[in-house]
User: What shape does this take?
Amino acid sequence: MSDPKQSCPKCGYEIGKLLYCTPLKTDRYYCPNCGIKIQERCMKCGTWLTLIERHCQKCGLKNPFYYKLVG
Assistant: This one.
């Protein structure tokens, strides 16, 4: 199976493996090229959410982070 890649929605920089496949141990995660925030925690349960998730996979809360970035 190929290693899926994720691109920054602002600048197109290839970030690496899909963000939800690799949990991060930080409160913030930014694109290394342009600095846009690409990950934050769910406001209800604290699960990591990325820009590609419409809803939290743990509690189902709508992800405002996704809708801010995609419009």
Summary: The two ends are 32 Å apart (CA to CA). The helical segments are 64-70. The chain has one domain: 5-70. Residues 5-70 form one domain.
